[in-house]
Specification:
about 80 residues; alpha+beta; two-stranded parallel ribbon
Length: about 80
């Protein structure tokens, strides 16, 4: 889905935070979890400066356990 690499994402997130953005909403279903991984890296030490929301129960695949609240989904991210 997404077209931005980590460097471009770092720049955009930094500009947003410098501009006063302090709330970011995401979900593990965005780009099959890649968006959360990229966002986490982009936030780095500034994570404490924002409110981070995420959605749950987003389907990330066709299998039974490919749902955000399943035990399998939780362990896959850990």
């Amino acid at each position: 889905m997404g077209e931005l690499d980590q460097n471009a994402s770092n720049t955009i997130v930094s500009m947003a935070l410098d501009g006063g953005i302090n709330f970011i909403d995401t979900a593990d279903g965005y780009s099959n979890g890649q968006s959360e991984e990229i966002l986490g890296k982009a936030l780095g030490k500034r994570r404490k400066d924002i409110i981070l929301a995420t959605k749950v129960r987003v389907r990330t695949g066709a299998r039974t356990n490919d749902v955000g609240l399943s035990r399998h989904q939780h362990h896959r991210r850990m």
